[in-house]
Amino acid sequence: MINNLDEDTNKALDLFNKKKYIEAKSIFLNLIKNPKVNKKIYFILYETFIKLNDAKNAKKYLVKFVELDSENYIALNKLANLYVLERQIEKAEKLYLKAIESKNDYLTAIINLALFYQGVGNIENAKKFYYRAIDLSPKNFAVFYNLSKIDKDFINSEKIELIEKTLQNEKLNSLNTASGYFLLAENHKKKNQIIDEMKKLEIAHKYTFEANLNSNKKSVHYWINIIPKIYDKLNFNLKKNNFEIKNLSPIFIVGLPRSGSTILESIISSGEEKILNLGETGLINWSIISTHKEMFTDSKKGEEQLLSLDKNLICKKLSRAFESLGVSNTKNNLFIEKSLENFFYIELILKIFPKAKFINSVRNMNDNLFAIYQQFLVKNPWTHSFENILNYVNNYLKIMIFFKKKFPDKIFSVNLEELINNKEEISKKLYNFCELEWSNKALEFYKRKDLFSSTASNVQIRSNLYKYDKEKYSDYKIFLKNFLDQYKWIEKD
After folding, report:
1. DSSP letters along 364-399, please?
2. Contact, 331 vs 254, CB < 8 A?
3. pTM of the model
4. Residue 293: strand, helix, or coil
5. What is the pLDDT of residues 343-387, one digit of tens each?
6. Residue 45 in contact with residue 28, Cβ under 8 Å?
7. Parallel, antiparallel, or unpaired for β 249-255 and 334-337?
8. What sign has the CA pseudo-torsion 76, 78, 79, 83?
9. Which domains are present in the chain?
10. How far is CA 190 from CA 10, 149, 376, 475, 479, in A?
């Protein structure tokens, strides 16, 4: 019996390592029926369901593993991460603290807890744990970068000198190096040394891109070269077209990073009606890519598959994934999802969710370009090249014009500057479009104690809407002069 157990375990692990997660899952589930099974199988089951984007079952088996190994700081930290996804704030906090209690120098949990406190707006505790992380890792410039966002006095001349010397004399990993150069760029920005700032940003983005080079290359190729050419031809295979998700009423926020999308998300979710807010799940793109993996390459077969997608399989994946995040056909059927790249998939999304609505987050395009380039957006590989940003923005503008003409009643655009200047009027129009009842609470989102954001705007949403600074990026226009002929939408004045 033991030999068979070991044999099946090795077989399942081999399948897992080969990324055959569904086959591995079946064997692992069979293994846990045996009372003599190693408790680690529950942890591997958690990892398997994570790979399958099934957070509900992932949590189920991780909870079981923690019951069997209550001091396992790695598992406690990962379980806390899952509770963050579910916005179960108190449970997440307790588990992060317990992970650190189990191992007081566990840097990953300490940083995660700092990020968690930053996400919920508890700035003092966030600072406390960032400083604790720095005590353990004095040249962790990624922590320096995060801390600098909530403590404007942290980066001083001493820190700049340390960063410069370390980057010059020591070998750091790519993301740590990138963080250092982002901080040097920010230092030049404060001194209005714009040319030096842009040079440092170019180096920072280079290292960020190289941190996950192969994956980033594939991602950029997909977002820049594949999907923009066929977004209007995407279709489902009519032979496999009987699965629908009719009862869900999602509100998708789409657009560009740094366009005010987090503010819109906060306003919509802060009214009288409690709305499930999922944040940036990436599930639409994941369901398509994972179903038709060839499309993520430059093969002709991949593009052919994009034009005849398997709706049944995609819908089943989405149904399971959204359900695991608390979405239900009978309750919690109204939810907000903020994966900004979903503008590429508007027509497909409407075929899956007929009741879907889209909020298009917009700001001055020149400002948006530089706001993106100045930000450390690790999960958006196309943002690590100014030329790629221009290309992506150009495609976004073209695609939104197309879909607004095709689905005028399904898309509502909100301009950040207009929202700030006319808060009540624009927010009422936004609520009307979403078929929600507006109240003053919508504009008091910054007072919420349960407001969580893991985006770069998590500090900004802790205060009332700021005045839009029209001159903030005026000195940067010199960097656009070589692109004026190619991109007519760039403002010249």
Report:
1. -HHHHHHHHHTS--TT-GGGGSHHHHHHHHHHHHHH
2. no
3. 0.89
4. helix
5. 999 999 999 999 999 999 999 999 999 999 999 999 999 999 999
6. yes
7. parallel
8. positive
9. 214-463 (3.40.50.300)
10. 56, 13, 17, 13, 18
